[in-house]
Specification:
By secondary structure, the protein is mostly beta strands. The protein has three helices and 14 strands.
């Protein structure tokens, strides 16, 4: 029922006044999603402080509910993640001081559990494959790095080869421009253990790569 009718219909009214369009007015409730970190080209990089994950393309606000842009990409390790925001017309990423609080519609956040691997049928996860450290699992909070000052033509495979020399990798994420596919100049590298991550910092921070000097540091500041 309804396959051939109004859904995708020929008159073209479906998209215009439909349910998918963001309302113009401010949301009923907002809550902090993160803090401004630094500009990246025309976008603003935000360090997420909310334990829930923002929706892609969700609107973001100042504390007074002034709309300032929309979520563009979400990246980084699951324990310390970031997002980039495309700012509204007239907004400049450079005008946001580091640490400035950014807010989001409370209804535009998803629980972190939606993005975590679910335990596989067996036990309760204490000693097995699930959450426990005994089976060689990784502590992403301790073993994740940020890498800055990368060339715009670098590829994830390049970083994989470079950083794998320091230890076993869990994940490599290279931030890319969605329209060009080129690097935005930074990446996140996650190892299975913090000793390998520390080795990568010792070996590669300040390392010349593709005519640029890389900066490699902990994704989450060490206490």
């Amino acid at each position: 029922m309804g396959k051939g009718g109004k859904g995708k219909g020929g008159k073209g009214k479906g998209k215009g006044g439909g349910k998918s369009y963001e309302p113009e007015g401010p949301p009923d409730e907002i809550e902090e999603v993160g803090e401004a970190l630094h500009p990246c080209e025309d976008e603003l990089v935000i360090k997420c402080t909310n334990e829930r994950i923002p929706h892609f393309n969700a609107r973001i606000f100042l504390e007074n509910k002034e709309e300032i842009g929309k979520i563009d990409e979400i990246f980084g390790p699951i324990n310390t993640f970031y997002c980039s925001a495309k700012l509204a017309e007239g907004m400049k990423a450079e005008s946001f001081k580091a640490g400035k609080k950014i807010y989001i519609d409370t209804m535009k956040l998803l629980p972190l559990s939606r993005f975590l691997p679910q335990p596989s049928g067996g036990g309760k996860g204490k000693g097995g494959k699930g959450k426990g450290k005994p089976g060689g699992g990784y502590d992403g909070q301790d073993a994740s790095l940020r890498v800055f000052n990368l060339a715009d033509d670098v590829r994830e495979g390049d970083l994989q080869d470079l950083f794998a020399a320091c230890g076993r990798l869990q994940r490599v994420f290279l931030a890319k421009d969605m329209s060009t596919g080129q690097s935005k100049g930074f990446a996140f590298i996650t190892y299975y253990n913090k000793e390998d991550a520390q080795r990568a910092i010792d070996k590669l921070n300040g390392h010349g790569y593709d005519n640029l000097i890389m900066k490699v540091e902990w994704a989450k500041p060490r206490a």
